[in-house]
Amino acid sequence: MLKQRLSDGYFAAKEALQDWLGNRNVARLAGIVGLVYVLLVTGFGMYWSLTPDHPPLRYDRDNGSRAVVGTATTSALIDVAEVLLDKPGGFLSNDITPPGVLMDNMPAWEYGVLMQVRDLSRAMRESYSRSQSQSQEDPDLAKAEPRFNFSSNSWAVPASESEYRQGIRYLKAYRSRLSDVDQPQAQFYARADNLRYWLAVVESRLGSLSQRLSASVGRPRVNTDLANDPSARQSTPSASEQRVKTPWLQIDNVFFESRGSAWALIHFLKAAEQDFADVLENKNATVSLRQIIRELEGTQQLLFSPMVLNGSGFGLLANHSLVMASYISRANAAIIDLRDLLAQG
């Protein structure tokens, strides 16, 4: 009896659905609704794909006096992290619904920004806020840094955005204590060795991005992993020549990751120019830092092509990855020179 009722209910529902779909007005309405939905998703996707402009940094001088050392870098880190979360569409890397789930260029841009945020927050915790290796770390920075290292694709319990916003709150607490003369426990040590510590990480990041961008055109490369050290060893043997090529479907992702990484670095370096002004002036290195910023600003030029092209190096079509690699490589070389300059007495 129960089986018969279930069977009758199934066929009744099937006939009702067929009658509903057979109605021309209903079919026309469904088509219009579907078309409007596709247009809305496409429109929002195009709008959310626009990269943000440079956010204003809150480290201006008050009444001609210099701001507290460290507030520029801290404010830059806060501003960049807030733009990452509050730009049009919000944080898209963990979206599970259209159009965010269908987009890959903007999540790649977000990942590039996030990596720079993570590197600077680690440098602030381990170096900038400590006078020496045995010094106690700042409690707010110790809580902020692991928040930014939370997974970027978690959409619930907890969501990535909630963890990053907690990190921002701890950074704001640190900045508030830093500006309070009654709380000398919060410090920012603008020394040449501290700046070199962070620049070493930046150098490594840019070097990796440059290699991945250049690998958009597959080329055989000589293995130099153990060069200049005859006693060096590695875990497993590798070929003397390797052919490295970025997968075709990943080329645009690497391009936008590099663009996001450079975007964040522009702000962090401008802030470093303020906080480390005396150090840079003493080393006669201010113009070197500005040249790095100038090279990175070249990566933010408007992309007129609707897609990232991957022509050969001297082919008929452009290769946007190689152009980006040129800017990144020049900035990286300038950072190496700046680190050497800061190491001199």
Uncertain runs are 60-65
Helical fraction equals 55-70%
Separation, N- and C-terminal Cα atoms: 94 Å
How much of the polypeptide forms β-strand, as a percent range? under 5%
The counted number of beta strands is 2
Could you state the order of secondary-structure elements as H and E?
Answer: HHHHHHHEEHHHH
Q: What does the largest sheet look like? A: 2 strands, antiparallel
Category from helices, strands and their pairing: mainly alpha
Average pLDDT number: 85
Side by side, the strands of the main sheet go 1-2
How would you characterize this protein structure?
By secondary structure, the protein is mainly alpha-helical. It is 59% helix and 2% strand. The protein contains eleven helices and two strands, in the order H-H-H-H-H-H-H-E-E-H-H-H-H. It has a two-stranded antiparallel sheet. Helix 4 runs antiparallel to helix 7 (192-214), helix 5 packs antiparallel against helix 6 (160-178) and helix 7 (192-214) packs antiparallel against helix 11. The longest helix is centred in the first third of the chain and has 25 residues, at 24-48. The termini are far apart.
